[in-house]
Amino acid sequence: LELPPDIETKMEDIEVDFIKEDLPQLFKSMQAGADRIRQIVLSLRNFSRLDEADMKSVNVHEGIDSTLLILQSRIRATSERPAITIEKDYGELHLVECYASQLNQVFMNLLGNAIDALEEAMAQDKLTAPVIRIQSRQLDDHTVQFVIADNGPGIPEALHSKLFDAFFTTKPMGKGT
Predict the structure, then answer these.
(1) Which terminal residue of the chain, N or C, has fewer Cβ atoms less than 10 Å from its own Cβ?
(2) Distance between CA atoms of residues 123 and 29, nearest Å
(3) Which residues, listed in sequence order, are joined to residue 88 by a DSSP beta bridge?
(4) At a CB cut-off of 8 Å and minimum separation 6, what does 28 contact?
(5) pLDDT for 80-109, tens place per residue?
(6) Pairing mode, if any, of strands 131-140 and 85-90?
(7) Could you give the CA distance from residue 74 to residue 86 in angstroms, rounded to a whole number?
(8) What string of DSSP letters covers the chain?
(9) pTM beyond 0.85
(10) How would you class 4 by CB atoms within 10 Å of its CB: exposed for 0-12, middle for 13-18, buried for 19 or more?
């Protein structure tokens, strides 16, 4: 098919060949972005469980995974530091009867504090490969154990006895949860 010269010139000016090559990739990127937004919305819904104010049997691993997805922007590498490695060692758990949104908030606070500690250690050049480990175990029919640990400097032993005091924090005023 022979096109008139003015149309051929216009097609070259707007780089039709490049657009034909780039358009499928653009659509793939848009789809990936939409999928990511869908994932985040589902995670936020799962995390908050606004429609579930009562105690309910839930898969706690889904709550932890939703929390990690919400925290992804703090976990991935930045120009100042490497990504924080998340090591999950989930055991086989029964459904846990709990207030899911409150338990998810506990996981958010623990993981957020771990990220804060790792970022501080890296800023002081005390750590180069940050890791957070999350373990879960079914201890018996009515007891589940969760362990969340990081490879940061830890809390000084002298402060351990104060950890569960109301309003105690190792952070400056206005920081931490």
Answers:
(1) N
(2) 34
(3) 134
(4) none
(5) 899 999 999 999 999 999 888 889 889 999
(6) parallel
(7) 12
(8) -PPPHHHHHHHHHTTHHHHHHHHHHHHHHHHHHHHHHHHHHHHHHHHH-TT--S-EEE-HHHHHHHHHHHTHHHHS--SSSPPPEEEEEEPP---EEE-HHHHHHHHHHHHHHHHHHHHHHHHTTS-SS-EEEEEEEEEETTEEEEEEEESS----GGGGGGTTSTT--SSPTT---
(9) no
(10) exposed
Residue pLDDT, tens place only, 117-142: 999 999 999 999 999 999 999 999 99
pLDDT of residue 48 exceeding 80? no
Distance between CA atoms of 39 and 151, rounded to whole angstroms?
29
